[in-house]
TrEMBL record:
Keywords: Cytoplasm, Metal-binding, Zinc, Zinc-finger. A zinc finger (RING-Gid-type) spans 297-366. InterPro entries: CRA_dom (IPR013144), CTLH/CRA (IPR024964), CTLH_C (IPR006595), Fyv10_fam (IPR045098), ZF_RING_GID (IPR044063), Znf_RING/FYVE/PHD (IPR013083). Residues 145-202 form the CTLH domain. Pfam families: CTLH (PF10607). GO terms for molecular function: ubiquitin protein ligase activity; zinc ion binding. GO terms for biological process: proteasome-mediated ubiquitin-dependent protein catabolic process. This is Macrophage erythroblast attacher.
């Protein structure tokens, strides 16, 4: 129960945190309206000329119109996030906890949104939108968050920082609270591109306007960037060659994704990766990598072994045996039975098979036959 709640937390946290931020923004706008009304009250109590009064009223009207637009936008976002919260709470209530006889249906209800989340994170935006629409789970996935992000990532792939810088400006206050380095790195990359093109005067002017304000926070990085004016592109000096490295744009995209997830209270890892790693960790044992491993063990295949390469071994306090015939767990109620050749099958499998062959059990792997009375019970430690 607790594990399931932990995995499902991001589903509710994303719209809830957004709703909470929007509520704070609404309070800020309302405080601004009260401030404008106080200004209006003070202006009305002072004697002034008709021209001054007109200018004051015009300025107040302009501020109120701006605040009205902010309130409309805030209301729209609040309604959308509240709708998502209701839809996601209803979804979790509908699927409930996994039932033993309906595990497949329970997993199917979750798999669609997990796959949509993975595709959004990997940049398959159209496919994600199509899947969400076909399965009618638009309110259960965060397509609206990744819509702008998709355009920004495409811009970075074209070596264009303009959309990313606009996004940073829009969320500057919250990014500063997160101590984000993204905006500084974007400006640094713009500066480096000017140096790469040998537009030195423009690069110097750009650094004064956009990089110098960050000197108190990132002095060492700023000094290294400015030194690129002397080394230029193609340098073999490692501390400066990395500035001109083609991988810098990929690192910027990764940094943007990280800050996007943090900004919206989303986990850094996709839910699909989390589920897959948990499952592989639970299955990973040295036996899986041996030549005698069961073909039904997913980790007996090379692709799954590669996926589980960096994962820890599964810790089994007690041994568990699964019958190769019935696929049932062998325990005190269905004990393991050992054939004279050392093969082990469950008592249930032995009884079912032997009943069809006059009390003779034949090992399906080796073809060895024996009387059921010749089998002995094994005890699991």
């Amino acid at each position: 129960m607790a594990g399931n709640e932990s995995i499902e937390t991001p589903l509710l946290r994303v719209p809830f945190e957004s709703l909470r931020r929007t509520t704070r923004e609404r309070k800020y706008v309302i405080d601004e309206v009260q401030s404008v009304m106080s200004t209006l009250h003070e202006a009305s109590s002072r004697p002034c000329t008709p021209n001054d009064g007109e200018k004051t009223l015009s300025g107040i009207l302009h501020r109120l119109e701006g605040l009205k637009r902010k309130l409309h936008e805030t209301t729209r976002v609040e309604e959308a996030e509240a709708r998502r919260c209701r839809a996601r709470l209803g979804h979790l209530a509908d699927i409930g906890l996994p039932q033993k006889d309906a595990a497949t249906l329970w997993n199917d209800a979750r798999m669609d949104r997990i796959l949509t989340d993975y595709m959004l994170r990997r940049g398959y935006h159209r496919s994600a939108v199509q899947l969400g629409s076909e399965r009618q789970i638009e309110e259960l996935v965060d397509v609206h968050i990744f819509a702008d992000a998709h355009a920004i990532l495409e811009g970075l792939a074209r070596r264009d920082c303009s959309a990313a810088l606009a996004w940073c400006a829009q969320h500057r206050t919250r990014l500063r609270k997160l101590r984000s380095k993204l905006e500084f790195m974007l400006h640094t990359q713009e500066f480096v591109e000017l140096v790469r093109q040998e537009r030195m005067l423009e690069a110097i002017a750009y650094s004064r306007r956009h990089l110098s304000p960050w000197a108190d926070l990132y002095q060492a990085e700023l000094q290294r960037a400015l030194a690129a004016l002397a080394f230029r592109a193609g340098t073999a000096c490692k501390p400066y060659a990395v500035l001109f490295d083609e991988g810098a744009w990929r690192r910027l995209a990764d940094l943007f994704r990280k800050d996007l997830y943090r900004l919206h209270s989303m986990p850094l890892e996709a839910q699909l990766s989390i589920h897959l790693q948990a499952g592989l960790s639970a299955l990973k044992t040295p036996q899986s990598y041996s030549s005698t491993s069961s073909k039904e063990d997913p980790l007996s295949t090379e692709k799954f072994q590669k996926l589980a390469e960096q994962l820890p071994w599964s810790k089994h306090v007690h041994s568990k045996l699964i019958c190769a015939i019935t696929h049932d767990l062998m325990n005190e109620h269905n004990p393991p039975m050992v054939l004279p050749n050392g093969a082990v099958y469950s008592q249930k499998a032995v009884e079912i098979t032997a009943a069809k062959n006059h009390g003779i059990f034949t090992c399906p792997k080796t073809g060895v036959s024996c009387d059921v009375n010749d089998l002995r019970r094994a005890y699991i430690s």
